[in-house]
Amino acid sequence: MNRPIRFVSVFAALMTFALLINLTYSAVFRQPGLNNDPHNTRVRDAEYSQNRGDILVGSTAVARTTATDGHFKYLRTYPQGAEYAPITGYYSYYFGRTALEYSQNAQLTGNSDSQFLQRVTGTLSGRKPQGGSVITTVNAKAQNAAWNGLAGKKGGVVAIDYTTGAILAMATSPSYNPNQLASHDLPATQQAWKSLNTNPNQPMSNRASKEIYPPGSTFKLVTAAAALESGRYTPDGQVSTPSSIVLPQTTNRLGNEIDCGNSTVSLTKALENSCNTAFAKIGMSLGQDKLREQAKKFGFDNTFDSDVPMAASRFPGDMNEAQVALSSIGQYDVAASPLQMAMVASAIANDGKLMTPYLTQSVRASNLQTVWKHHNTSLSQATSRSTAQDLQKMMVSVVQNGTGKPAQIDGVTVGGKTGTAQTTKNASPYAWFVGFSENPHVAVAVFIESSNTDRSEIAGGTLAGPIAKAVIEAMR
Fold first, then answer.
1. Integer Cα distance of 369 and 351 in angstroms
2. Which residues 6+ apart lie within 8 Å of 329 measured at CB?
3. Residue 3, exposed/middle/buried by CB under 10 A (0-12, 13-18, 19+)?
4. DSSP string of 372-427, one letter each residue
5. Handedness of CA 394, 399, 401, 404 (dihedral sign)
6. What b/e string do you get for 38-52 counting C-beta neighbours within 10 Å, with b at 16 or more?
7. C-beta separation of 364 from 133 below 8 A
8. 276-286 helix and 288-297 helix, angle to the nearest 10 degrees
9. Burial group, residue 10, by CB count within 10 angstroms (0-12, 13-18, 19+)
10. Are 336 and 432 in contact (CB under 8 A)?
11. Catalytic annotation present for 217
12. Which of 121, 264, 355, 427 meets the CB 3.0–4.6 Å disulfide criterion with 165?
């Protein structure tokens, strides 16, 4: 009789011990994940009864919380609405959180490790919990220039301080008003959600960093980098620029958008005039492995630890020669976000060092004490210093003498690369401009998916270049 009792006692003790271990594990290790899970209704209801911290651009709140007399004690509001939507995201009872509202949720609710001391002292003093404020890296003037430049267009703009990785502007158009989803009128938020998601213009798509598109001739910067890194090409070395070439194993011809001389020119001149045939031949001579390796060094086929919402850009694998030729000029199955192409320009401008992009500069607790600061990190050495400096000069030549002239700014050294990417026969081509300026230290990518511009007049330099110019000028 004693033996069964002992067995049951030991079993009960083991189960109790296992339960205690599980509770301890959940409390210590799973708590942050459980608190940030938007499906956790208990936490969600508690958050709506808490003063959530602001998201700040300078000293201006682009997301803030106001007290209410309703069922929920606090309402999340977005004073600038659609302009900052890709940065703030939304905070919605039914639809969760996105962008900084998601990635910095622990800081905004005051539940982060960095605010532990404030939570303890608040509890001891009887104060109600209050979230911390997130101070962003965004430059308000640059953001306004990007937003205004996209007016009437569909596309995205990203600007980065290439010395640090700080996001200075991130705009997308069309956009949406996060207030519609943050409302306490829950049936209205459901209707708004349905309307936004069925809108053919897809206003909730973050075209600046969460969508990828054919980058067109802006990708020639990656091909040029691979060429220079190989040691087989130099900026002044001659490359062949036939008026057209027949793509291998096909009857299809690839031509140049402008006259490239049907002869040979320097690699710099080929970049100035964006000669398709020259870069297709260079890409085929280097081979897909070299191109892919270089693309990955710039960040393609990868995401990284950051508070910037992003999608991985793509460089295709297992290609034939014709596909390699097209990929070398940013066509075939190459796809990149404006954030990715801004990173390419950023690494070149920063002497080959690619910094990790980020949006949060610091966090300030409710007592105004800074409890967290960002520390800059390097993502990769995308090219050697000498290759980057050669590319800088080549890109400056593009703006001074080539297709990037609309981005010229008096008294400022600007380098760039234009792109016009073909999509389908019935759709307008995409217009791109990526570039950098030496003072201010900024890399910019502008992508225009569509606009009211006549199809024959769509070009990266004329359509996207002036927007990049306006963003740079706004920070002078």
1. 36
2. 216, 217, 219, 220, 223, 276, 279, 280, 283
3. exposed
4. EE----EEEE-S-HHHHHHHHHHHHHHHHHSTTGGG-BTTB-EEEEEEEE---TTS
5. positive
6. beeeebbeebbebbb
7. yes
8. 100
9. exposed
10. no
11. yes
12. 355
Q: In what helix (H) or strand (E) does residue 436 lie, and over which residues does it extend?
A: strand 430-437
Structural contact between residues 35 and 26, judged by C-beta atoms closer than 8 angstroms:
no
Give the residue with greater pLDDT, 71 vs 339. Answer: 339
Identify the three-state secondary structure at position 54. Answer: coil
Helix (H, G, I), strand (E, B) or coil at 65: strand
**Separation CA 400–CA 386 (nearest Å):** 21
Residue range 125-177, pLDDT digits in tens: 556 667 899 999 999 999 999 999 999 999 999 999 999 999 999 999 999 99
Q: Which one of 217, 306, 366, 437 is the catalytic residue?
A: 217
The Cα–Cα gap between 335 and 346 comes to 18
332-388 per-position pLDDT tens digit: 999 999 999 999 999 999 999 999 999 999 999 888 899 999 999 999 999 999 999
Cα separation of 397 and 458, whole Å? Answer: 22
pLDDT in tens, 309-322: 999 999 999 999 99
Cα 170–chain centre separation: 8
pLDDT tens digits for range 424-449:
666 778 999 999 999 999 999 999 99
The pLDDT assigned to 29 comes to 57
CA–CA gap between residue 417 and residue 419 (Å, rounded) = 7
Q: What are phi and psi of 326, to 5 degrees?
A: -70, -35
Neighbours of 151 (CB within 10 A): 8
pLDDT for residue 456? 42
The DSSP code for 112 is S
The first and second tokens of residue 347, run together, are: 């690494």
338 close to 157: Cβ distance less than 8 angstroms: yes
Asked whether the bond before 174 is cis by omega within 30 degrees of 0, the reply is yes
**C-alpha separations of 191 from 88, 185, 187, 219 in Å:** 21, 10, 6, 41
Neighbours of 123 (CB within 10 A): 10
Position 332 scores a pLDDT of: 95
φ, ψ dihedrals at 155, nearest 5°: 170, -165
Contact 383, 444 (CB under 8 A): no
Q: List the one residue out of 176, 212, 143 whose CA is nearest residue 359.
A: 143
220 — alpha (psi -120 to 50), left (phi > 0) or beta?
alpha
Q: What beta strand segments (E) does 60-141 contain?
A: 60-67, 74-77, 91-92, 96-97, 133-136
In sequence order, the 6+-apart residues with CB closer than 8 A to the CB of 423 are 214, 429, 430
